[in-house]
Amino acid sequence: MKFNLALLVAFTLVLTACSQPAATSAPESPEQSKALELYSWWTEPHEEASLNALLQVFKQQHPNVKVVKSGVPGSAGTGFQTKIASRINSNHPPDAFQVHGGAELTVSLAATGKMEPLNELFTQQGWIDTFPASLVQMVSKEGNIYAIPVNVHRSNVLWYNASLFNRYGLKPPTTFDDFFEVAEQLKQKGVTPLALGSKETWPATQLFECVLVGTLGPIDYNKLWSGHIPLDDPRIEQAFNTYKKMLSYVNPDHATRDWRASVQMVGKGEAAMTVMGDWAKAYLSHELKLKVNEEIGFATAPNTKGIFVAVVDAFGLPKGAKHPDATKKFLEVAGSIAGQDALNLRKGSIPARLDADMNKYDAYSKQAMEDFKQNHFSPSLAHGSAVPPAFLTPLNQLLQRFAADGDVGAALSAFKQAARANQIGTTK
Question: Of 193, 228, 332, 414, which has fewest CB within 10 angstroms of its CB?
Answer without folding.
Answer: 228
